[in-house]
Amino acid sequence: MRAEDGVRAAYAEIAAWLRATPREDLDRKRHEAELLFRRIGITFAVYGEGGDPERLIPFDIIPRIIARSEWERLSTGLRQRVRALNAFLADVYGKQEILRAGKVPTALVLENEAYRKEMVGIVPPGGIYTHVSGIDMVRTGPDEFYVLEDNCRTPSGVSYMLENREAMLRLFPRLCARHRIAPVSRYPEELLETLKAVAPARAGADPTVALLTPGPYNSAYYEHCFLADEMGVEVVEGADLCVQDEVVYMRTTAGPKRVDVIYRRIDDDFLDPEAFRPDSLVGVPGLMAAYRAGNVALANAPGGGIADDKAIYPYVPEMVRFYLGEEPLLANVPTFLCEREEDRKYVLSNLHELVVKLAKGSGGYGMLIGPHATAAQREEFRARILARPGDYIAQPTLALSTCPTVVEQGIAPRHVDLRPFVLSGKEIRIVPGGLTRVALKDGSLVVNSSQGGGTKDTWVLEDEGPGGLAEGQSQSQVQSAGLGC
């Protein structure tokens, strides 16, 4: 919120609001937000820790602000990056030119467990592999944004982005009315348009789309149902689908109905027991045969994990240069691959100041934050790296930006990141903003919900106009949940 010379312009109204709002009013609104999320049922699941696995993601009522000029630079870089990631996937499952050119180590790709040989030679409709990408960003200075990681498999969290906006509109209509906030409510409509755009040609103008979920025990099941409802499509489990003559059908009360596009929220391993893990009980037998025959589109395409593997991540800037002939607009965090001898020596000598991550890890697990770790923890990771160096990467500890956050002690700075969602179909679409995740523990850099993190609404501000309202937008529209903002 603050720069060296005071409050940043985009936060001026928020700063004034915080000065004028008594602490007890903030606490009351915080409690109202929790009741609202609990009543709607906005939860995620954490298994294996005991107690009730269904939990609310803490929602912080102070929004995170991004100026329009900042967002324009970010969104341009995001489009460039996702184009390069899609080109990389098409290449490694096709001609493998980037490997032959020596720009990415061949063994790092072809011997990687995320590389799916079953996808070799398959060209998805439109040549799109990652239809929904979640690109995690961190900010370290006024004009310094870095990509922390790419999510090209089944990125989650967009439902919280949408529900966070709804909550702010309900709780703070006047505050919303004082800002010209770029809308996010079109995301489900744009997602559906993206999915329909990659349907097989025979589907015609109105293809049938379904969302495939592993079921209610999945941690993101709420989001699956939410998105299916918002798009007006069926949410199905593996048992609801069947494949006959390499065509996918959905069981309905009126009989089998052909499915043209499947927005799948099931990991590759469990997608089709005939192609991947034979013990999968949540997949669809024969699905990959139908996909290979071109009778159904899968979003995201199987095998996309090779593009977001943490060991591949350092090579994304080179992908931009190789496929697009452009310089990367978004920078990577400097990354050390522990399988390289030189990198490994550096990492082992500097564990006290690095963040060490599992190359295949997610959710904030299997990570060492060197400056906050004990000597015993650092020695434990030293032994792990020496035993299996290829399993680990390391990065410097960045001075992540903070946002004002309501905590038990009052308003305090907490570290944040940002996950914009990029849709790739006939065109690339990005709703303004994304999901801001916040590390609620004092000093923590881990924003993951499973590790105690929360979320904020993300406001991309349009240029100010008379009265602060967007063109054609009335006060009543702003105050009505779902409109205006």
Automatic annotation (TrEMBL):
Lineage: Bacteria, Pseudomonadati, Pseudomonadota, Alphaproteobacteria, Acetobacterales
Circularly permuted ATP-grasp type domain span: 63-439
InterPro entries tied to this protein: ATP-dep_Glu-Cys_Ligase-2, CP_ATPgrasp_2, UCP005522
Highest taxon of source: Bacteria
Bias-annotated ranges (Polar residues): 472-485
Source species: Paracraurococcus ruber
Protein name: Circularly permuted ATP-grasp type 2 domain-containing protein
Region annotated Disordered, chain positions: 449-485
